[in-house]
Amino acid sequence: MTDSLTDSLTAVLARWTLFLPPAAAVLLALVWGRSLPPVVVALAGLALVGAVLAAVHHAEVVAHRVGEPMGSLVLAVAVTIIEVALIVTLMADSGAKNATLARDTVFAAVMITCNGIVGLCLLVGALRTRVAVFNPEGTGAALATVATLATLSLVLPTFTTSTPGPRFSSTQLVFASLAALVLYGLFVTTQTVRHRDYFLPPEAGGGPLEPEEHADLPSRRAAVISLSLLLLALVAVVGLAKTVSPTIESGVTRAGLPASVMGVVIAMLVLLPETIAALRAARRNQVQTGLNLALGSAMASIGLTIPAVAVASIWLSGPLILGLGATHLVLLALTVTVGILTVVPGRATPLQGGVHLSILAGYVVLAVSP
After folding, report:
1. Which residues, at least 6 apart from 239, have a Cβ–Cβ distance to it below 8 Å?
2. 57 CB contacts (<8 Å, ≥6 apart)?
């Protein structure tokens, strides 16, 4: 009797992602354009978080249907769409006040993925099997693309002179956006068509990989339903973000925190489900899948977010500041250097995971107390 009740409760909880997107959309319709009391704002905030989690869950279902490594690509694109929606919504509401929000969010995503998710995957995988094994060819290509995208989009604006401040001129912004799209497209082609085997989990120590702990392959009908709910959840995310953003911004200001903390919050929110998915892969002794998710998210965050924000800047009232400051430049250089040393051998111990996590910890401390 108890086991039956537990199974029933588990089944209900497992289906929350089916009910939450419609519920979030209904809540959005009820609160849109109204002045809300704190309790309703808190409820909208919870619905926003739930809608993000549900969106990425349904993206996972679609990703499972199409298989690896295309699945990692689907997840990365879904997360990026949510990220772009949140950034553009907040920038449209605040104008010049959030001129650095895109830069702060993209850089936070790079630090979280390249140090946080990568570090956790390596640490979990190495603690479980003594040495975490992955393909240096595919992982190295992904890291090189992330480093190039970050340099072209976030480093160069700091040193250009055509426009005052760490900003691109219109011509430079167009070039950076096109370069980001081309590089991302080339990587996707490499990952999914020409060199797909570079991004598949290798055998660890000559032994077979453990079977995946996924459910059975979703049916076409289940994938279509998930795709529909994913789109509905994305609409709810954008609308609820616009609703709760004034309260979040005022809370950050009252707490005396830098404005860049908003970017960290957005990046942590949208990357939380992907972090969980990467850790699950690492626990199955599939560190490569976790690294695909991490670096693919970093790449999509730059390669898709920067062009999208560049297009949005045409009608946004405030400036678009992309150039990193000195502290962040140092952290980015350290991340790329350590990443290269980690990737080249194709094997990692818990030490490498700890090193990456320490860089992320330093970034978080400096984000709160610059």
Report:
1. 28, 32
2. 17, 273
Q: Give SS3 for 133.
A: strand
Tell me the pTM. 0.81
Average pLDDT over residues 122-151: 92
Q: Are 79 and 233 in contact (CB under 8 A)?
A: no
Distance from C-alpha of 56 to C-alpha of 123, rounded to nearest angstrom: 24
- Measured distance CA(230)–CA(93) in Å, rounded: 25
Contact 132/347 with Cβ under 8 angstroms? yes
Token pair for residue 358? 């320490």
Q: What is the DSSP letter of 216?
A: S
Q: How far apart are CA 46 and CA 27, in angstroms?
A: 11
Residue 299 CA, distance from chain mean position: 9
The answer to whether the CB of 204 falls within 8 A of the CB of 285 is yes
Residue range 256-304, pLDDT digits in tens: 778 778 888 888 877 877 787 788 888 888 898 889 889 988 888 888 8
Instruction: Kindly state whether residue 296 falls inside one of the protein's structural domains.
Output: yes
Residue closest to 306 by CA, chosen among 147, 176, 128, 198? 176
Cis peptide bond upstream of 38, omega within 30: no
Q: Measuring CA to CA, which residue among 233, 261, 302, 268 is closest to residue 60?
A: 233
Identify the three-state secondary structure at position 215.
coil
Provide CB contacts within 8 A for 72, sequence distance 6+: 63, 199, 289, 292, 293, 296
List strand residue ranges (DSSP E) for 99-149, in order.
132-133
Type of residue numbered 239? G
Residue 31 lies in a domain: yes
* Inside any domain, residue 8: no
| Residue 367 near residue 108, CB atoms below 8 Å | yes
* Domain carrying residue 257: 17-209+216-368
**CA-to-CA dists, residue 186 to 177, 190, 195, angstroms:** 14, 6, 11
Q: Which tokens in the block code for residue 329?
A: 């430049």
First-last CA distance in the chain: 56
CATH number of 97's domain: 1.20.1420.30
Specify if 5 maps to a domain. no
Number of domains in the chain: 1
Give the separation between CA 332 and CA 301, rounded to whole angstroms: 15
